[in-house]
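Milestone M4 deliverable, item 7.
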Amino acid sequence: MRIIEKAFATKQHGVAGFLSYPERTEPGPALFLIHPKGGLGEYIKTETRKFARLGYTTFAINVFEQLGYPEPTHIVSGSQIQAKTPDPEFTRVLTEGWRFLLKQPTVNKSRVAVCGYCNSFCRGNAGSARVRRLLPHGSRGAGFAAQAGPSLRECEEDSLPIN
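Output delivered:
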């Protein structure tokens, strides 16, 4: 299976992130990855490639660049950016990435999931609430937040438009 990879920058493309998908002729399942507080690093890019090999069009949004912080890494600054950014800004940026993913020709809009990695923009339980807001109402997609350790917590659907 041939895997196609593309990097996107806000300045050139209007959205920042990393997209990996299997070459295919019909739309298939997709996954929207939300990176941890360290940013969109090589680990998350590797994760997009792994999911693409499993058949998913996978987009990892670079939340910090989308918010106006285009540094190559946010290992040191990620926590500070999180602390000073209001929730509506995170929701706006995540919604932009979600809609970008749904526009990809390789994506079946009724088969999309969201995965937020450990500390993906949460203060307490707010992170999983943000993930819930991204799920389209009535979709067959699933959302979950991956926390430290092996457990996954399923999230409820809410009412973000699918288009």
